[in-house]
């Protein structure tokens, strides 16, 4: 089977960070989010992957590459026609997928603790036309939600319902046969102007095709907002095998390292530092006079001096200096957060803050 991974869109809820970085490259447990769906489909036996990207996007290609690190071939397909919904992203890739073979469709921002092998095996074993994974989720009004009849039979999928028909959301991994394309040709754009993947599923169900499902074993995360990405970072860090937490950087003998801590090559940890894991510190980072607390990832080339950081994600090449405590935060690339140096008697704060930012003082 081939696999298509969706990595387009504009992630407006993550702005201003996503003005300069594709959401799917934001780190979870120290590696780009999109690596998780790639690893899922590779584990399921896929050898050919296409990634749907925004027109002109080169950054994902630069980070992900040609697939050789996973032993697969990766192709990039630009989205044509603008933001027309994720069902349209699949239809846009029909020439690459072929309209006769089954395939996996995986959203590039969804992570699964148990991977996706079970649903792929279920698709083949039960000779399904479509296989879905369902999971209980708190934010049902933002997702596609499964509806069942009195006998517990799946009858339709409702996109972003005001009144959810069940507590089971459809997660971001799907397996289809060629009938996906037949379904697409029969649906119309929704009120928000998009071809909804939920309408594909409902059409297949109502027209007698075999649509099966499994309940996700373990957690599933669809980080649609910054707070959810921080939660996803916690889940990903808790799932990393203990063997992943290795110290390859330079650590001063007087520094204190407790718990599971990963320190990558070239990183330098000074003497007056306490790190309490799980923590991931990227290559060439410098940490001095600091406390780095649980569920924190520090990106490549960051400098932290005179600060306490916990439950946060700090992207590459940012500097945090003499600012006290930072908790539950997400800081973009090349950002400076520092104590003011003005000698004038002023209690004001100096900020250059972009659109859609959040600052709590």
TrEMBL record:
<dbReference type="Pfam" id="PF00483">
    <property type="entry name" value="NTP_transferase"/>
</dbReference>
<dbReference type="InterPro" id="IPR056729">
    <property type="entry name" value="GMPPB_C"/>
</dbReference>
<dbReference type="InterPro" id="IPR029044">
    <property type="entry name" value="Nucleotide-diphossugar_trans"/>
</dbReference>
<dbReference type="Pfam" id="PF25087">
    <property type="entry name" value="GMPPB_C"/>
</dbReference>
<feature type="domain" description="Mannose-1-phosphate guanyltransferase C-terminal">
    <location>
        <begin position="275"/>
        <end position="338"/>
    </location>
</feature>
<keyword id="KW-0808">Transferase</keyword>
<dbReference type="InterPro" id="IPR005835">
    <property type="entry name" value="NTP_transferase_dom"/>
</dbReference>
<dbReference type="GO" id="GO:0016740">
    <property type="term" value="F:transferase activity"/>
</dbReference>
<dbReference type="InterPro" id="IPR005908">
    <property type="entry name" value="G1P_thy_trans_l"/>
</dbReference>
<protein>
    <submittedName>
        <fullName>Glucose-1-phosphate thymidyltransferase</fullName>
    </submittedName>
</protein>
<feature type="domain" description="Nucleotidyl transferase">
    <location>
        <begin position="2"/>
        <end position="233"/>
    </location>
</feature>
């Amino acid at each position: 089977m081939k696999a298509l991974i969706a990595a387009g869109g504009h992630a407006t809820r993550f702005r201003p960070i996503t003005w300069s970085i594709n959401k799917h490259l934001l780190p979870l447990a120290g590696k780009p989010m999109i690596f998780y769906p790639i690893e899922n489909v590779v584990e399921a036996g896929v050898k050919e992957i296409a990634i749907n990207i925004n027109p002109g996007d080169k950054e994902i290609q630069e980070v992900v590459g040609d697939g050789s690190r996973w032993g697969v071939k990766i192709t990039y397909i630009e989205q044509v026609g603008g933001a027309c919904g994720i069902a349209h992203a699949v239809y846009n890739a029909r020439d690459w997928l072929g309209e006769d073979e089954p395939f996996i469709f995986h959203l590039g921002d969804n992570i699964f603790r148990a991977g996706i092998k079970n649903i792929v095996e279920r698709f083949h074993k039960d000779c399904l036309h479509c296989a879905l994974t369902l999971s209980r989720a708190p934010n049902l009004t933002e997702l596609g939600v499964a509806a069942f009849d009195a006998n517990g039979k799946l009858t339709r999928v409702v996109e972003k319902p005001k009144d959810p028909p069940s507590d089971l959301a459809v997660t971001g991994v799907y397996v289809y046969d060629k009938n996906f394309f037949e379904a697409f040709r029969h649906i119309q754009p929704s009120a928000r102007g998009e071809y909804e993947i939920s309408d594909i599923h409902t059409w297949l169900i109502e027209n007698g095709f075999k649509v099966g499902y499994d309940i996700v074993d373990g957690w599933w995360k669809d980080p649609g907002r910054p707070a959810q990405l921080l939660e996803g970072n916690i889940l990903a860090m808790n799932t990393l095998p203990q063997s992943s937490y290795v110290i390859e950087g330079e650590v001063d003998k007087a520094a204190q390292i407790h718990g599971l801590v990963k320190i990558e090559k070239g990183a330098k940890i000074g003497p007056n530092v306490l790190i309490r894991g799980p923590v991931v510190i990227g290559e060439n980072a410098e940490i001095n006079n600091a406390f780095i607390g649980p569920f924190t990832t520090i990106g490549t080339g960051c400098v932290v001096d005179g600060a306490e950081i916990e439950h946060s994600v700090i992207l590459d090449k940012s500097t945090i200096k003499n600012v006290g405590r930072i908790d539950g935060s997400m800081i973009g690339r090349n950002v400076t957060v520092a104590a003011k140096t003005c000698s004038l008697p002023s209690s004001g704060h100096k900020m250059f803050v972009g659109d859609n930012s959040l600052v709590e003082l």
